[in-house]
Specification:
Layout lengths: L5 H22 L10 H23 L13 H32 L6 H30 L13
Length: 154
């Protein structure tokens, strides 16, 4: 597995944002108001991923006295890295979706429904970006540090 690249994550934000903006021009009037439920969900997932990342990094670097007796399970670290990459990519795409909503409704904030959707979509996009960063951090935490014996540093 190759590490996530910021350019790919940026593309995963921009392309869905533009696509959603185009689709909303046709179908926005048929949609119900956006719910707030994604905001705390994304933020709780981000907190969990940051905590897991710090814990995994400490285990890899043997920083915890209690964990130094037990070796790190490589399969667990690989699973955490895949979780970090997957959540960073999915959250970036979702951030793009909600930024598309922000772009669409930003022009008419004097109407209550559009103003509500603007604030909900902006908060959801921001929390999805936080989750993207947390997933990227979790993926970074799962990297094995380069040792002095490595002949082929990456």
């Amino acid at each position: 597995m190759k590490p996530s690249r910021p350019a790919v994550l940026l593309a995963l934000v921009v392309v869905p944002a533009l696509a959603v903006w185009v689709v909303l021009r046709l179908f926005y009037s048929t949609l119900p108001p956006l719910p707030w439920t994604a905001v705390p969900t994304f933020l709780l997932l981000a907190v969990g991923e940051v905590f897991s990342g710090v814990s995994t990094r400490n285990k890899i670097l043997h920083r915890s006295a209690a964990e130094s007796a037990r070796p790190v399970d490589p399969l667990s670290v690989a699973r955490m890295a895949v979780l970090g990459k997957a959540s960073a990519h999915a959250a970036a795409a979702l951030a793009g979706v909600f930024l598309g909503f922000v772009l669409f409704v930003a022009g008419d904030l004097d109407k209550p429904t559009l103003r509500h959707d603007f604030f909900v979509s902006a908060a959801t996009a921001l929390s999805a970006l936080v989750l993207t960063g947390a997933g990227f951090f979790l993926e970074w935490c799962c990297r094995i540090p380069k040792g002095k014996d490595d002949k082929n540093p990456r």
